[in-house]
Amino acid sequence: MKFSRQIIRVLLILILLAFICSSGDAISGGEISTQTQIADSSAKTSRGNLSAEALQRIRVLESVCAQDLATPPRGIGPLAEKVRGSLLEAASSLAMTLKPSVAIITGFWIMRNEIKRPDGTIEYLGDASETDGPVGTAHLAAGLAHAGIPMRVVTDKPNESAVRAALEEATSGIGVTVPLEVVPWDLPNESAPADGTLDKQMEKARSSIASIVEQWKLIKITHVMALERVGPARSDGRPHNMAGADVSKYTAPLHLLYEAGGWTKLAVGDGGNEIGMGSLDMKLINKSITNGKGGIIANAIPADYLQVCGVSNWGGPTFLFALALLRPDMAEQLLAGLTPEKDKAILQAAVEKGPAVDGIRGTRELSVDNMDWVKHAELLKQLWKAYRKGNSIN
Question: In terms of pTM, does the model score above 0.70?
Answer without folding.
Answer: yes
